[in-house]
Specification:
Layout lengths: L4 E8 L4 E8 L2 H7 L2 H7 L9 H9 L2 H8 L6 H12 L17 E3 L2 E3 L18 H11 L4 E3 L7 H7 L4 E5 L5 H13 L4 E4 L10 H6 L1
Helix pairs in contact: 6-7
The chain binds flavin mononucleotide.
Amino acid sequence: MRNRKKLQRSGNEEGGNKRISIVLQDPRVLSNHFSTSIIRRKMASEPVNVNEFQELARRAVPKMYFDFYNGGAEDQHTLRENMEAFRRITFRPRVLIDVRRIDMSTTILGYPTSAPIMSAPTGMHRLAHPEGEVATARAAAACNTIMAMSFSANCTVEEVASSCNAIRFFQTYVYKRRHVTAVLVQRAERNGFKAIMLTVDTPRIGRREADIKNK
Ligand SMILES: Cc1cc2nc3c(=O)[nH]c(=O)nc-3n(C[C@H](O)[C@H](O)[C@H](O)COP(=O)(O)O)c2cc1C
């Protein structure tokens, strides 16, 4: 169908599993869709809370892509429990101390970061922005934090590496054909990625019902 972006499931030769791949039939549609002016017009005001980005994304991104980013598997118990787990964490107020200089910087695996926050590996950033992971890496660099790049990225490790000086980790899986993993790790290392994040919970991909409906 003309101008339709299609979310497809395709066989993953390496693991014998399924993974999601995206076929953009007309990339110009995506670029137009994300033109800054359109997004600005849709923004009533600047977000004041990180949750508000969710609503902005809902308005800015085609439903199929929004559902991919926003949804969990099956009845979404784990997604809900993850959010509840964050709600259960509270801050201990410390009063009557010098707060003129607040420093949240720390290190992750020995690498400095401005706060104990980094970007988790998530796939296919071009669904959200035409520059994809390159833009994510630049944002991480601007925030002095670490970017974890997904194996399912739309950009190559070379593109991300040459785009900025953010400290980068690379996420991958252990494939049946071990040499595939070895080659990926070596390529990441050659491009200055500092650590490997090994994802082990995907021998089978979750059954994401919204993605199934959007097919
Ligand atoms: C849209 C989306 C895509 C993701 N893609 C990947 C991926 O490609 N590789 C991976 O190891 N984890 C992936 N994850 C998992 C995240 O890295 C992270 O482990 C998960 O979201 C749990 O963290 P959270 O509770 O902060 O969301 C993805 C998560 C989401 C929501």
